[in-house]
Amino acid sequence: MSWLVTGGAGYIGSHVVRAFEEAGLEAVVVDDLSSGHREFVGPETPFVEGTILDTDLLARACKEHAVEGVVHLAGFKYAGVSVQRPLHTYNQNVTGTVSLLDAMAQAGVEHMVFSSSAATFGTPDVDVVTETTPGRPESPYGESKLVGEWLIRDQAVATGLRHTSLRYFNVVGSGSDDLYDTSPHNLFPLIFEALIEGRTPRINGDDYDTPDGTCVRDYVHVSDLADAHLVAARRLAAGDALEPVYNLGSGDGVSVRQIMDAVRDVTGIDFTPEIGPRRPGDPARIVASGELAARDLGWAMRHDLRDMVASAWRARQHAAGA
C-alpha cells in the first residue's frame, strides 16, 4: 500500500515525500511540473506527470499503485496573485479538489490529508487564531482553500472518507540542501534572489497595524511541517480519530522586517530593505495556536528563525553551485 502525494515535486511536497519514505511508507507523486521540479523526486519514487484536473489519470494512479491515502498539496498557492487570477485559482484549487475526490471514490481510497491554509482566516479579530476562529478569507486563494475543506467534509459525510486538513501559512527553510523554495512570490526566495543579483530586497508595505508596520505571520520550518503530514497520515491509516482541521502555528509571530534582519545576520550581506506598496490580499497579521496539533500530531516548532533562514540560504547556495 502507498500514499499518493499530489504536488509531490514541489517544495513542500518533496519534503513530505522524503519524510514518508524515510519512515518506511511508500509514496507516489502526481505533479504537472507547473511549479514543481522532476529532480526533487528521487528516481526510486513512482512519478506520474499530469494535472489533478485529469480525474481518469488520478483514478488509474490510485488503482495501479494500491493507494490507501492521499496527501493533497497540489494547487495554486499565491494569495496576492490570486486576486488578479481568481478563475485560475478556483479552477486549480476547487475544481482540482473535486476531481481528486472523484478519483479517490472511484478507486476506493479512504484517507486524505489536505494542505489548507491560514489564509482561510483573512484578518482575524483575535491575537491568536484557533480551529474555532471563523473563516473570513480576503483573497480568492484563501476562499478556495476554505471551499476545499467544505468539499472534503461533505464527501466524508457521503462516503465515510477519513480526513483532516492542516492550516499553515509561510513555510520556509530546507530539510535537505537539494530541496529549496523556487517560488517567484514567496518571501525567502524573493529576498535571496535580490541579494544574489545585487538588488535590494523589498518590503511590501510598512504601514500595517503591527508593532513595526510590516506584516506578521507564523513562519514554520518545512521539515516540521512534513513531519506533521506524516503523523496525520499514519493516524488516519491506523483508524485513529482526528479533528477535521488543525492549525500548524507557533502561537507567536514574526514580522517581515524581522525576517530581513535575520537574513542580513545569517548571510553577512548588509542591506536596508526598500519599502514598496502593499500587496492585495495580504492581511496585517495571522498567528495561529498549534496546541491542538501538538496534542494529536506531535506538532512542535523544532527550528528557530535563524535555523529557518540558514537552512534556506544553504540550500539556495547549493542550487547555485556555491
UniProtKB/TrEMBL annotation:
Lineage, top ranks: Bacteria, Bacillati, Actinomycetota, Actinomycetes, Propionibacteriales
Keywords: Carbohydrate metabolism, Isomerase, NAD
Pathway annotation from the record: Carbohydrate metabolism; galactose metabolism
Cofactor(s) the record lists: NAD(+)
All residue ranges annotated as the NAD-dependent epimerase/dehydratase domain in the record: 3-249
Enzyme class: isomerase
Pfam families the UniProt entry points to: Epimerase
Alphabetical GO biological process terms: galactose catabolic process via UDP-galactose, Leloir pathway
Gene Ontology MF terms in the entry: UDP-glucose 4-epimerase activity
UniProt EC number: 5.1.3.2
Similarity-based family: Belongs to the NAD(P)-dependent epimerase/dehydratase family.
UniProt xrefs under InterPro entries: Epimerase_deHydtase (IPR001509), NAD(P)-bd_dom_sf (IPR036291), UDP_G4E (IPR005886)
Catalysed transformations (reactions): UDP-alpha-D-glucose = UDP-alpha-D-galactose
SUPFAM superfamilies, A to Z: NAD(P)-binding Rossmann-fold domains
Protein name: UDP-glucose 4-epimerase
